[in-house]
Specification:
Blueprint lengths: L2 E6 L5 E12 L4 E7 L2 E9 L7 E4 L4 E6 L14 H8 L5 H7 L8 E6 L4 E5 L4 E4 L3 E5 L9 H16 L5 H8 L17 H6 L10 E12 L3 E10 L2 E11 L2
Antiparallel strand pairs: 1-2, 1-10, 2-11, 3-4, 4-5, 5-6, 6-7, 7-8, 8-9, 11-12, 12-13
Pfam families: TANGO2 (PF05742)
Organism: Planococcus shenhongbingii
Protein name: NRDE family protein
């Protein structure tokens, strides 16, 4: 997951409005969102290489979303898959803070994670190794720290804030439209994360499409004040729309 823009407890109808893109290599095998056979209460897509996930919800209202922290100098070998963190939280009954405290930061390469539910949401990354409870409002997370002002984060937060101020009812198609924005940022606004200007430019758009890597799926999650969950995923294949999966349920 490479971009998560979300509204938290700052709307007359929705406790949580989340719009996210997952970017990954096209050849990495993935299952679309579904309730897992080995964890029937867990709704998420699945990485078939490591069997974890990047974003999911559970029938009891727990939610988690993960992004990688972009730093090419960090070692990848002999590390636990970061997707296991989302899976393990959603199948656990541990309190979010205790779950985050149980993580061993050096076991993973760099990551950010949001965990909790629509009433209590927490942010953690293993770079700062600090747990923060999310304040109500509009937030954005990409491959740096929460609310780091990267162009795609700023654009996403601004769109979401404007849209939600004008709409009491969210139309998921509207959020998918902004997640499909492929405009790249000006070079002057690009961060320097050690991957070179060409890659920084290609990765600066909300929707990414390169010959081998890009946006594989987009997900919108809505949780309203009655604890009704709407989870909609759009799957893409090499930048082209492939399928849409829609799920709705009330938190148990």
């Amino acid at each position: 997951m490479c971009l998560v823009n979300f509204q938290y407890k700052d709307h007359p109808k929705y406790k949580l409005v989340l719009a996210a893109n997952r970017d990954e290599f096209y050849n990495r095998p993935t299952e679309p969102a579904h309730f897992w056979k080995d964890a029937p209460a867990l709704l998420a897509g699945r990485d078939l290489m490591q069997m974890g996930t990047w974003l999911g919800v559970a029938k009891n209202g727990r939610i988690a979303a993960l992004t990688n922290f972009r730093d090419p100098s960090m070692p990848e070998a002999n590390k636990i898959s970061r997707g296991a963190i989302v899976r393990d939280f959603l199948t656990s009954d541990m309190e979010p803070q205790l779950f985050l405290e149980s993580l061993i930061p050096e076991n993973y390469t760099g990551f950010n994670i949001l965990v909790g539910d629509a009433d209590h949401l927490y942010y953690y990354n293993n770079i700062e190794n600090c747990i923060t409870e999310i304040e109500p409002g509009i937030h954005g997370l990409s491959n740096h720290l929460l609310n780091t002002p990267w162009p795609k984060v700023i654009k996403g937060k601004n769109y979401l804030e404007r849209y939600l101020s004008e709409h009491e009812e969210v139309a998921v198609d509207d959020l998918f439209s902004f997640l499909a924005d492929s405009e790249q940022a000006d070079d002057s606004a690009l961060p320097e994360t050690g991957i070179g200007i060409e890659f920084e430019r290609m990765l600066s758009s909300m929707f990414i499409k390169t010959p081998e890597y890009g946006t594989r799926s987009a997900t919108v999650v809505l949780i309203d004040n009655n604890n009704h969950v709407t989870f909609v995923e759009r799957v893409y294949e090499k930048g082209l729309f492939k399928e849409q999966n829609v799920f709705e349920f009330d938190v148990e």
